[in-house]
TrEMBL record:
Name of one Pfam family that matches: SSF
GO-annotated cellular components: plasma membrane
The keyword ATP-binding appears for this protein: no
Tagged with keyword Transport: yes
Region Disordered, annotated ranges: 661-691
Organism annotation: Penicillium arizonense
Transmembrane residue ranges: 20-44, 65-89, 95-117, 138-166, 172-191, 259-276, 362-387, 408-428, 434-456, 463-482, 502-522, 580-599, 611-636
InterPro entries: DUR (IPR031155), Na/Glc_symporter_sf (IPR038377), Na/solute_symporter (IPR001734)
Compositionally biased tracts (Polar residues): 661-681
Protein name: Urea active transporter
Keywords: Membrane, Transmembrane, Transmembrane helix, Transport
Family: Belongs to the sodium:solute symporter (SSF) (TC 2.A.21) family.
Amino acid sequence: MSNLYVREGISSVQPPLSQAVGYIVVVAIGVIIALVMMLITKVLKKTTGEDNKKTEMFMTANRTVRTGLTASASWLWSTALLGSSFVGYDYGVAGPFWFAAGCSPMIVFFALLGISCKRKIPEAHTSLEVVRIRYGRVAHVVFMILCLVNNIFACANMLLGAAAVITAVTGMHIIAATFLLPVGVTVYTFVGGIKATFLTDYFHTAIIMIIACYFSVKAFSIEEVGSVGNLFELVQAAAQRHPVSGNQDGTYLTMTSKGAILFGILHTLGNFGLVIMDTSYFIKAFSASPAAVVPGYTIGGIAYFAIPWGLGTVMSSIALGLENQPNFPTFPRRMTTSEVSGGLVLPYAAITMAGKGGAAAVLLMTFMACTSTLSAQVIAVSSILSFDVYREYFKKKATDRDLIRSSHFGVIFFAAFSAGFSTMLHYVGIDLGWTLYMLGVVTCPGIFPMIFTILWKRQSKAAAILSPVLGLATGLAVWLGTASHFGGEVSVASTGEVLPCLYGTVASCMSPIIYSVLITLVRPQNYNWDDFKKEKLALEKIESDLTTVHHDHVPQAGNESLEDGGHGPESKELKRWGRIAAVWAAATFFGHWVIWPLPMFGSRYIFGKRFYTAWVVVAIIWLWLSMLVAIFYPIFDGGIQQIRDVYRGLRGRDNIAGTVASQEKGGTSASPSAGSISDATRTGDVQEIKG
């Protein structure tokens, strides 16, 4: 891995918790969550008409998810919790900052792509449908492979880190953890679809944020630390014992860190690929109501920044400062390279602070983060297999039942495949650190061809097909070539170093821009965006507010539908949201990547006690505010209304399922919008988007 200093030796740390605790969390809690989600799904069907036997509900939640749930979607990868702490341990305060800066702007930028898709192709279910309609089947297959590779490595990245942590704190066999983690995810995703993913994301995010905030307070209440100022002195002393190569004066307390900024570039590009090529981000954008896409992704991205920054800074500082104390798990030795790269900085710091309670908290946090994001990945791959494979190449006129069946197969297949693939990586010596560094090599080639597909009408078919393929070949060649050059051989160790991964990722990301532009110049396309709307994709009617309904909609006088070619009032409003998204994306990137860190990097500034105290306090305040937003915003933004609707339905008043049955007996097919809340809530969305 990216060794700043080699720490040899093998792990001899005894797990603080028993294997039984590991199995209880991974299996029992996973099954309980799955059963609760099955019950919620059944209740919502009875009281609000949310029928998961309908494809539009299963895959897009009838396109009516509100801002609160959208903002609390699957940002909290277990990789962020574990990775931000281990780069903080390696590079100091610069590590968690660059980890956060490599994630947050990408989530905010995606708001622009999401709202553009909402405006141009409102009936889509996956990003691959957009590619197929514009460029045909060859491009469709190329991007399908790229997206599936992205999902496979993303899942492996999460499972490797999560399984290593579970094994470290409970002694549970790492392969058992790898295969059992997806079990509960498979069950509730199988039954509840994308709505179950949104709801479990909310529940898991709330628990993770509460634990993270607990750690941010607990760190300064233990006798060895006591205050932020004392923690500063402990980290300063750690730098005297183990100076950091490439950091200003060898200190952990500076943003002038060569290793950290190289990691920042690598991580930013890699996450750019993870976001753009992850169909789950598009599915959640298609699932959100029009007024929720931009604010949801923007709020989610900005709130997310605090988690790797705040948690990573505090926990890595604790690990560095207390590593020479008798209560640190590895005392009297330092953590080994494999322990750091395996993501064990966070659990070891938690054990030092809170003993078995800290280990249990990290176990629960890791489990929640891993299963939450696994659910999104599973539903993404199942959507590809159902809409982009089964519906397109096997059964054009597939019914709801056909597509749901294929989606169920996709859920089970990918959950099993991802566990098997992660196991294979483990046995060849690959861990969280290796996948975190090399991820961009395979996820980045499709970034700009995909962006151009959605935003640039000139990109040609040949450019869309050839540029990502050539970009991937370029990236792999550069990655393996530089690994051989710097490491003397092509091996797991040499290919996991920072420089080969950085060069390979930059080549994978940037070369497709050149390829696409040059190929397009030969014979540019002039695509008409309105052509997207000529193909029927949704299995049910899309109203003028871009939500799915189960009844025939008759536009009222003066109400312009989406079939007007995209020139109605809704289209103008979506264009306005697009401009807002572009401004927020640019501001977030320049704020997190230029205005804030680069002056500190260039000035070679070393943190003093006051500045470090302010740095940590601001990070913790941001973390707590993010927790409040993640927990309470979804409740007030439609949650109370949905609870009220469910209560009224269970009491027999306004029972939607009963209304549907009576209307069907009367010869009409009627069911209300089965969206994120109810008809009343959806009407609120319509009023909101119309200004």
